[in-house]
Amino acid sequence: MFRNIYEIFGLNPFFSSNMASFLGGMEDLCSEPYSGVPLYMFFGLVMIISTAFIYAMHYHIIDRVGYSGFKSWWSSAGIAFVFNFGFASIRMWNLLNNGPLKFDCDEEFFQTIFNIPEIAMFAFVNGALSFIVFTLLSWPPLFRRASKNCYNTTPIPH
To answer: Residue 47 falls within a domain, yes or no?
Structure first.
């Protein structure tokens, strides 16, 4: 499920098919599958949980008049973007630097995914998806009904 979502927004215009294969569960090109959780699933779950937490903070925990405006919505959505961008970029960099990966069969595959623009573009897609999830959570009034002060807070000023 997460693979399809990430690849709609990211494959080829943003990150390469080699990165997509790696995130989908290919550990190497020696026909040995990745033994852990596929990275699309890992990053997708972290993105959904962290964005839902930021949404809950904005609408249900903080829920003050000072945070009920147009600018505060964009600030919270920006925090979700920045957090998920930073998490994905740091985690991918650490994984590719320190992970137990075996790319002996194809050094070109590893060189394609282990560069800053490739990692940054995947992180950008992760951040953009968190922004979209935050928007989807906060746009319909159904999820905002429990909020006392932020009920009318949406990305478009009223």
So the answer is: yes
Q: What is the pLDDT of residue 81?
A: 98
β-sheet bridge partners, residue 33: 26
Q: How many domains does the chain have?
A: 1
44, 5 in Cβ contact below 8 A?
A: yes
Residue 109: predicted pLDDT: 65
Helix ranges restricted to H, the chain: 2-10, 17-24, 39-56, 70-98, 107-113, 116-138, 141-144
- Is 57 part of a structural domain of the chain? yes
Range of the domain at 68: 40-99+110-158
Q: What is the pLDDT of residue 53?
A: 95
pTM: 0.83
